[in-house]
Amino acid sequence: MLKHLSKEAEETPLGSQSPPAKRSCPDLQEKQTGRVKKTRPVPQVPWNPKVDLCWHALVRGASDECEPEWCNSEDPLFILYTSGSTGKPKGVLHTISGYMLYTATTFKLVFDHQPDDVYWCTADIGWITGHSYITYGPLANGATSVLFEGLPTYPDVSRMWEIVDKYHVSKFYTAPTAIRLLMKYGKEPVHKYKRESLKVLGTVGEPINPEAWQWYYNVVGEKRCPIVDTFWQTETGGHVLTPLPAATPMKPGSATFPFFGVVPAILNESGEELEGPSEGYLVFKQPWPGVMRTVYGNKQRFETVYFKKFPGYYVTGDGCRRDEDGYYWITGRIDDMLNVSGHLLSTAEVESALVEHEAVAEAAVVGRPHPVKGESLYCFVTLTDGLTFNRTLEADLKRQVREKIGAIATPDFIQNAPGLPKTRSGKIMRRVLRKIACDERDLGDISTLADSSVVDQLFQNRCCPNV
Ligand code: PRX
Q1: pLDDT of residue 410
Q2: pLDDT at residue 16 above 70?
Q3: Exposure check for the chain: N or C terminus, fewer CB within 10 A?
Q4: What is the tally of structural domains in the chain?
């Protein structure tokens, strides 16, 4: 999901407020016509002359020429912090040549990049999706791209499709959460625009539930655009499981097969490789050019997190099922797996059953400790616009999950969630939801939340007594 510029910030005319004395860069005051206006006219952060530099002052004396800095292929390229299931975020370190080669190649093949394409990835540029598939991959291919900062729902819920028509976007890449958000408003806002230029649609970031997939395919792509459901991670640098458009027969909700050079395996708890249709831990058996090289400043943590549980394999931390046709289906993070009375359940599977109900726009499921069953299912549901939550709907949703998956998956709690705690990249922070389900107020670091006010609201609406 995209960074939100508040309406006020977008609409405040330059110079309509006076900069507070001593807080702003002096240059901002003298250079009213400057183009860098993000913090203007009032800087959002206090100016610290020891560390802050003013853009205008710097560019004034800068040369138009910039000699390249020659580097070794294994020199560090960037560090991107990603949350770990325990402890502080990990600084994922990528290096120059492998990352460039991998993002360039996956971009070219997975989006079937052609010289006359117009490509648009809606991700936040500070997220790995933005690094790999807004900057490196497309730029290395000389692609024409749309860069967008804004919301898919502002000024109205047709915004995405308006932009697609305006710039003749042919390859479009977004997250399931954005698709589910737009699905809530139905087909009409999509049909307002023609979208004839679209050729390939991509998704990334989380398992896409079959309903959202179908809506994306049928309504947005009008059944003529292949969907590339790309599975990858900050750590993998680029796509590792993905269809190739028009070449790979699709199955809604499956990231299909490995990209060239990637060798997946599915392991059981004892680390044995499973053959044929099976479910277990998704691991990779050999490196590929874009794989992370280390956790910055902590090689030991790199080895512990990714290589210790199953020596000789890279452990993704995701659960995965391989079906009878060899397709891979991500079942969610292993740490999102629930164990209810000895049965392993995937949160994604329960969420999908809930979202199939017409009243539900989005769902997030977490485990809540249960004295007898080990864990019980605590479900947060965001309803389709205009609907209200009531006991009948709650019973209906429980019945739906029971019918779709089985009695063992019957939710114990269903809570109305007008909003879900999400990072700026649109990822639901299940860690926070687990705390809400247990009424634990110590949430740890929630600075990456896009809107922390939803958390208070969810605590107020809790629907069950403490155990
Ligand atoms: O659980 C998988 C999920 O996102 C995780 C990686 O998150 P992050 O490092 O923030 O990178 C997100 C953008 C690449 C994975 O471990 N994930 C990502 N893509 C998919 C997915 N789960 C299912 N299907 C996907 N296509």
Answers
A1: 94
A2: no
A3: C
A4: 2
